[in-house]
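Sequence in, structure out.
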Amino acid sequence: MLFLHKDQIIDVPEGTTYLSLAEQYQSGYDFPIILARVGQTLLELNKTVTEKSGFLKNESEPERLVFITTYDRDGHKTYERGATMMFLRAMTHVYGKRIEKLKLEYAVGDSLYFNCTLKNGRISDEEVDAVKETMRRYADENEKFTKTKMQTDEATALFRRHGMTDKERLFHYRRSSTTNVYRLGNYYDYYYGYMPPSTGYINVFDMRRYADGIILTLPYHRRPTEPGRPEIPAKLFETMRATNVWGENLGIPTVAALNDAISEGRGRDIILCSEAYQEHLIGNIAKRIKEENRRIVMIAGPSSSGKTSFSHRLSVQLENVGLRAHPVACDNYYVEREKTPKDENGEYDFECLEAIDVELFNKQMTALLRGETVEPPTFNFKKGVPEYNGSTLRLGSNDVLVIEGIHGLNDALSYAIRPEDKFKIYISAVTALNIDEHNRIPTTDNREIRRMVRDARTRGFSARETISRWQSVRHGEQKHIFPFQESADVMFNSASLYELAVLKTFAEPLLFSISKDEPEYTEAKRLLKFLEYFLGLSCEDVPRNSLIREFIGGSVFPVG
């Protein structure tokens, strides 16, 4: 079979494993190879080259073969899944039937948090050390991850015997007649995504006891041979835990439970409960702002976290407690286009702090706090200049500025404003749902789908364009937003339990429009597979002030 690898045609005998090819070409890569991609199809290394491999249309057009390393996004996720299965098997080995519940709840930065409930007693440091040593032994023994395609009914019965009822419920809604099941030794599990060839690939990790469970630390994905940071930010952890507890109490901890509710006609109830929960939280934030006599509210969060709708809903709640809210968009304080810094590619860098007229922003905000009248600019994005239309602003004794922007939590933006005048809010979409107890829903997937739906509706962008820009967006978040999240006075989780079931009906047609010969096809295929887990839910019952309306349309707020 002929392949195109790094611009060279290579001839590979049929039956050759991609693992043996990876070993042959590993010296040409900086980091360990963990997956292969032929054309736009990802393949596990244990797969073999077949007569169907290698050709795009005919023998004169060989498919491109690319090896995926642990540095790449798909490679890092594969490493994470392998480490998760090793950890779960090691936990079963150490604790056995003492485990009552073991759930992967969060993934933040380089760490995974597993909530563990034992039938008697609590997790000890000594037992955590035993789990770690067991994982090290698995890595040293280099055991193979074995994948078997089973009839879905057979897989359901297998997991029922092993007490994994969450997977049994999930498979009830599976349309495919077959399911891939992974085995490591005598431990079986199901995973959304690909696996490494063997446990020897998972050789960088650490763990420690934390809260009611264990943090498993993996390599930092940009330095995949070095241990990552062994912590989860405290405020973010508490926000995620509160949302998870609420979801558990509502009886919707997994996608299967959400599907049950939808199929039983309780979808509307889940929508109303989710919205009521968020409104309760926003109301409490408004009360706290009034009690602490804060004059300026600074809101920041990553792309598609719902910042704009949140700022409007918060403004309504501020009015409800007797304060008058004035929204201010940091985007209106952009410097003139020709003064905007450029990035390493020579493109305008609108996300750096220097793209904002920080001096003007501080001058006007401090003047407002002194009771003076100012004329804020309105940025004309077509012309690339700030404009003044005669509109003025002056703060009364009960007035509050609600400022939304990417740098809202960075004190360098608001350096002249006293800390006691500022109330900082970090907003993100951290879903409380898991696919099942061992497969989490990444926050980034939730936001990527949100952005895709909104981009198509408001900007005319295709799903392919949104996907192609997504990693650049993520890079900006890592640089400008995430480092400041723990400085927030409060964190707000904008994710709703029901939203992916609603977004599914909007996103699937957009994703299906991406053709197989486009670079974004692999990601589109992954997201389509992810959305298959959900039953669709009509948006008819989604309130018009919902944050989700910012993405699907129909909002009462001016959100595009």
